[in-house]
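@channel sequence for tomorrow's demo:
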Amino acid sequence: MRKRINKTYILIGGKRMKVEIIAVGTELLMGQIANTNAQFIARKLNELGFDHYVQTVIGDNPERLKKVTAQAEQRSDIIIYTGGLGPTRDDLTKQTISAYLNQPLIHDEVGMETIKANFKGRIMTENNLAMGLTFQAGHTFPNDVGQALGTAIEDDNHTYILLPGPPSEMKHMFNHYVADYLLDQYQNDIVLTSKYLHYFGIGESQLADTIDDLIMSQENPTVAIYFGNFMVTVRLTAAGKNEAETKPLLEDLATAINARLADYYVGEGENLGINEVLVEKLIDREQTIAFAESFTGGLAAKKVVDAPGASKVLQGSAVTYTETAKADVLNVQPQTLKTYGMVSAETATEMAENVRDLYQSDFGISFTGVAGPDDMEGKEVGTVYIGIAEAGQETKVLTPALRGSRQNIQYRSVYSAYFDIIKK
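structure tokens (generated this afternoon):
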């Protein structure tokens, strides 16, 4: 199985530096576009070891931007702006912060050459020149995927970082330049190491209650719990002089947590996908899988194909949505369908067994149920039958109690099947 990566970062400046995000743009304030930049930056700041408590969204108004900056200075060491660096009349973030700090701007020569090259064969108006402005006494961040340069300056014990608004430009700039700038400016000999543990089939509050005493007794490592991608993640973060010092702290706490949550444990590593764990497990066991899907509509097969190594484990998939398709493609007996209905344990059993035979796989997995919005065959939304047929074993049917949106029911059903095979 491929080794999952946890993260080690430098702890900033001997302390947890406080960072504030200010997203600039009237279109954000009016709700016309989502503020995904702040979400991305916040996640990156957490990984880098910065404290981040406040985010602000403000329209393209210089006076309000100055007031918000003055407020941010009272509670934060570093202020990151995103947006307002473009060529239009209302893109005034650089000019506003320049005036506020009394720090002059200049045209970065290298950046200007790139901007002018992008306008070759087109008319370049005066306002486009503003995209090449940076702080004269500051630092320039190149824009490899756009035109507006980023810039940073230190002034009176604060650092001000100005980044473009288009998400593709901002993310590339942050990943390739800003993160290194922050570490170079503030790093010392203390490292911050994180370990990510993932659990399925348990709620966030139940998990937190199960390990509450471990959380309350810990200062180093710290423990954070959050829900995402239908799993609960526990992030452990330890501080020390080096990774050799932080690693045992993380391992000891992870062992104690997993001793209580072993029944729900999926795996370890940042950005872990349960589909990836399934494929890795099957590769390790030299086993194959096939799917018979009804209300999931091919989702189970799709998520397996998304994972590296899928070609080694996936034999095939059949989406049999109607009663006719279940009978003609999967050979579900007409009497079974007539007596028990399409949404039944009996139908799920035949679907799973027959798709395993059809594709000659080690596992045959079937999904039949009611994802909504309406009831079906007298069964309410959230009624699900998951057949799991394994070579040499008696077929079993999972009946998870599900609720929520159609998508929620589909994904939870698929992941429930994955998890059952992972835990074998």
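heads up for whoever presents: The two ends are 16 Å apart (CA to CA).
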